[in-house]
Amino acid sequence: xxxxxxxxxxxxxxxxVGTGLECFWNNLVSGKSGVAPVTRFDATGLPSRIGAEVKxxxxxxxxxxxxxxETDLFIQYALAAAQMAVRRSGLDxxxxxxxxxxxxxxxxIGGIVSIAEMQEKIAKKPGVRVSPHFIPRMLTNLAAxxxxxxxxxxxxxxxxxxxxxxxxxxxxxxxxxxxxxxxxVIIAGGSExxxxxxxxxxxxxxxxxxxxxxxxxxxxRPFDRGRDGLVVGEGAGALVLETLPHALERGAPVLxxxxxxxxxxxxxxxxxxxxxxxxxxxxxxxxxxxxxxxxGDIDYISAHGTSTPLGDRVEVAAxxxxxxxxxxxxxxxxxxxxxxxxxxASGAVELITCVQAIREGVxxxxxxxxxxxxxxNLDFVPNKSRNHQVKxxxxxxxxxxxxxxxxxxxEYSR
Length: 414
Prior knowledge:
Layout: E1 6-15, E2 18-19, H1 21-29, E3 36-37, E4 50-51, H2 65-70, H3 73-89, E5 101-106, H4 112-124, H5 134-138, H6 142-151, E6 157-160, H7 166-179, E7 185-192, H8 197-205, E8 235-243, H9 244-249, E9 256-265, H10 278-291, E10 300-302, H11 309-323, E11 332-333, H12 336-339, H13 344-360, E12 362-363, E13 386-387, E14 392-399, E15 403-410
Parallel strand pairs: 5-6, 5-7, 10-11, 10-14
Antiparallel strand pairs: 1-2, 1-8, 1-9, 3-4, 7-8, 9-15, 12-13, 14-15
Helix pairs in contact: 3-6, 7-13, 10-11
């Protein structure tokens, strides 16, 4: 059976630099940082006391009071992003066969904030009443589940948990389901809220976080010589994906074509990528092959670029190995300088960034790129956005456990 083409017809975000696509994009291309001192908990005594928190989200704009009380913030972000994306797509779920509508969403840890808060209450006051809504607040699958319930979807409903690659893998999984004619429309993306002391204690113990507490806006500095670790972020990104025939039949706005996807395990280490980049090379090459594009077709790379010393170095090595002498001529940027590392949400939001770059002809900058690393030879679009025609873009997402995911998106051509 010939596989169906898959297109993006709607997309939207909840991020530390803005909720809603226009706000997010305008702040991103203007170089705004979403990093500041942590306000969600008392970070006193921690090596890292900064984070990229969402600041302009009002749950009441998207959800009824009862649902707000019954859901963790990661579910609320997912529901909000999905609603905005569906609205942009013009999809009317009531006019569709619900069995042909699905949801695939990614998250790394689910409702960890709700878990940590409840455990703290029990520790302080044994016998405290546990809400009957606690379990559905914390379950990892309830972002996808609540989206399906909200819209009445009865097709595929899946949750993907592959650490930092979860959002990208959710989009890729949705694409495969659509290619195979398992659905007509799937809402795909990722959501994450992990800003709590428990997670910070763990990441700081692993020495993964930036300790640039005195200058938070400049703490996340992908590919910069002075990078010292990631900054924890949060948010959600959602895309409405459709088979091309279905999108054309209903007159949907086609924003871009999702052309390729690969997921690969490195089989190497729990936290560290292979030093020579071979695991990431494998994933990038498979995604390009799946998309049927040549090395010379790639106009822009949205890097994983977490601002960690090792991670950035390995990604640069991988890009060089794949693209050879052309690597230095391909613009490569990481939006994590602005958004922090939104974990599972990153892959979805960064793919949305690629679609925006294609549609707007503008590349988002890698902010805080103050001192180039002398070992790096790539064009990181430093500090300022750039006008640049993009027809085909590659988006990289690499997670703990060596779980790598790459997506290829291109300008739609009928």
